[in-house]
């Protein structure tokens, strides 16, 4: 009886093992076929690479534009705060700009820029995206830079004025360099946030990283590989940038402590 029980146990284990083996073999074959069809066949991985290039181009130039706009708005806000009688009209324009941009979705701003504002202009969709995302970024960078300027000790401003420097010279040579150093990590975070926000660039026909994955999906009708690959690329870039930004912040703190 014990021998019979042992025989059936071994047979059942072998049969179960073969089922598990077949399951993993079939899973491996399916995954391999999907990877081949989605990425390797007809060099479809180029959709991902080309999309990544466009994503990085849009993000980089949009952040640069956002920093320029944000700096201008921050200077107007700070100048008006120090002397409410000055820059009143410019301050009202900046307040309207901040309200409109912060109160509407970025994808709506993108479509307004492309289909309405630049409808008759002969500009590329990449340029339209850079303008839209840059203007959006500027509204958030403005608050970051304004906080950085206000974080500088007022005693340094008074010291600059006591040396005979004008308010503009004091701001440019003393206050702004220190403020920029304080806000660099925050601007790095804005770059990371904007990198993910550009995933809606496909709404105006741009082949960004997300759109590249969707094109592969529409060709192969296989959602797993292209979408997971797209997510993995975003994740690797964000983790890499976050790690680099963390090291950069530590070096800034070390230089401040010296």
From TrEMBL:
One function term, GO molecular function aspect: transmembrane transporter activity
Transmembrane segments: 56-76, 96-117, 227-248
Localization per Swiss-Prot or TrEMBL: Cell membrane
One GO term of the biological process aspect: amino acid transport
UniProt-listed Pfam families: BPD_transp_1
Coiled coil stretches, renumbered: none
Cellular component GO terms, alphabetical: ATP-binding cassette (ABC) transporter complex
Alphabetical UniProt keywords: Amino-acid transport, Cell membrane, Membrane, Transmembrane, Transmembrane helix, Transport
Main location: membrane
Residue ranges constituting the ABC transmembrane type-1 domain according to the UniProt record: 52-246
Protein topology in the membrane: Multi-pass membrane protein
Family: Belongs to the binding-protein-dependent transport system permease family. HisMQ subfamily.
Protein name per its UniProtKB record: Arginine transport system permease protein ArtQ
Organism per entry: Caproicibacter fermentans
Higher taxonomy: Bacteria, Bacillati, Bacillota, Clostridia, Eubacteriales
Name of the gene this protein is made from: artQ
